[in-house]
Amino acid sequence: xxxxxxxxxxxxxxxxxxxxxxxxxxxxxxxxxxxxxxxxxxxxxxxxxxxxxxxxxxxxxxxxxxxxxxxxxxxxxxxxxxxxxxxxxxxxxxxxxxxxxxxxxxxxxxxxxxxxxxxxxxxxxxxxxxxxxxxxxxxxxxxxxxxxxxxxxxxxxxxxxxxxxxxxxxxxxxxxxxxxxxxxxxxxxxxxxxxxxxxxxxxxxxxxxxxxxxx
Length: 215
Prior knowledge:
9 strands; Rossmann fold; alpha/beta; single chain; 7 helices; globular
């Protein structure tokens, strides 16, 4: 079992959940305007090229926000399902994408087993405190089909957990993130830093792709 960076009380975990969601609920429209033109095609391609199933693929867009990547995945001919904890995002994503979008908290996932060919977790899992990360990763493992693929992109850091305004984040180095993923039953397919083409000091995002191993 991985040792968490911080050990939070039940009350602190509740605060992490409520304040982080409050931040996003307050900024639904602004978040859409600020992110709708972000190019994450590199990340979508990284997920899709490792999935062995035949299209159309069943893909969970974890932390889908207002629906940008649901729209992109659907345009590629796949069958994406969104999930977000912020109700404002859920409503907007449903309206903009026409996809099914689940309203679920990251810390209380209730996902069907053996359902998705892939999971696209772009800029979301860093909100999970490290003491909860093994359980959340196992929930994702369970909902993937055998040999399903998990894509993850998180802001990297020196293995710290802290508040940034109302948002709580876990900022992990590559070795630490790799250990969490492997402990949860995944094998590494690739990892890289973003944005592409810049010096490492100017690449704050760590992206990685993982395959579900047999139990």
